[in-house]
Design brief:
Pfam families: OB_RNB (PF08206). With about 220 residues, the chain is α+β, with helices and mostly antiparallel strands. The chain is built from four helices and nine strands, in the order H-H-H-H-E-E-E-E-E-E-E-E-E.
């Protein structure tokens, strides 16, 4: 009968069962259990370590804050990325964590700290780009943007876009107007008004509203 032994020389061979008296205990039988235990321990150890690593990685991802996200986007090595590309870069796979990332990006865009370009990529505004609230003249021909830093930026009537009085806007500065900066509206970040009061007019098959507020320079069709 072949012998089975461990590397240390321990005999694991199962001896043949021999006859014994009914009043005696049967002889001990050696079963080579140890031959199969190490692989099981290795698998269990691998599973435990892997779960711990995944849990730690998930906790680290959930620590993402607005400041940390800004640090990533403002890094010199950062390449303009979409929401999906940012989630992949930050190793975010969970649906809830992805939604949290979306919410943070939305808030950063609304406050003007981050810009979402025409290709849905997120970038940091340049040196000549700032945010503020726009106020139109009574004739609606020009406007002034008041920034959070107390700066005033003149916006010509042709550069106001579809901004309405009181809107929070993103402004690109481009030169001077008299003794203050001049700029143009490049994006509306947040509307101040949800309703416009005006006069409803119909002409044939067309209808439109002329706002009562003269600071609004266009009609609504």
């Amino acid at each position: 009968m072949p012998r089975i032994s461990t590397s240390s020389g321990e005999d694991l061979t199962m001896p043949l069962i021999t006859a014994f008296n009914p009043g005696q205990s049967p002889p001990p039988v050696k079963i080579p259990i140890l031959m199969f235990m190490p692989p099981i321990f290795d698998i269990l150890y691998f599973i435990i370590i892997t779960r711990q690593d995944l849990t730690l990685e998930r906790r680290n991802r959930m620590k993402l804050t607005r400041d940390e996200l800004l640090k990533v986007i403002s890094s010199p090595k950062y390449i303009p990325a979409t929401l999906t590309e940012l989630a992949k870069k930050l190793k975010i796979r969970d649906k809830k964590e992805r939604q949290e990332l979306r919410s943070i990006l939305k808030e950063l865009v609304e406050t003007g700290r981050v810009i979402k370009d025409s290709r849905s990529r997120y970038i940091i505004p340049g040196e000549n780009i700032t945010t503020g609230n726009i106020r139109f003249s009574r004739k609606g021909l020009g406007a002034i943007v008041f920034t959070g830093e107390g700066e005033q930026i003149y916006i010509g009537g042709e550069d106001t876009g579809f901004a309405l009085d009181g809107d929070k806007v993103l402004v690109e500065k481009s030169g001077r107007f008299r003794d203050i900066a001049r700029g143009r509206i490049i994006k509306i970040l947040k509307r101040k008004r949800e309703k416009i009061v005006g006069t409803f007019i119909t002409k044939g098959l067309f209808a439109f509203v002329i706002p009562d507020d003269t600071r609004i320079k266009f009609d609504f069709y």
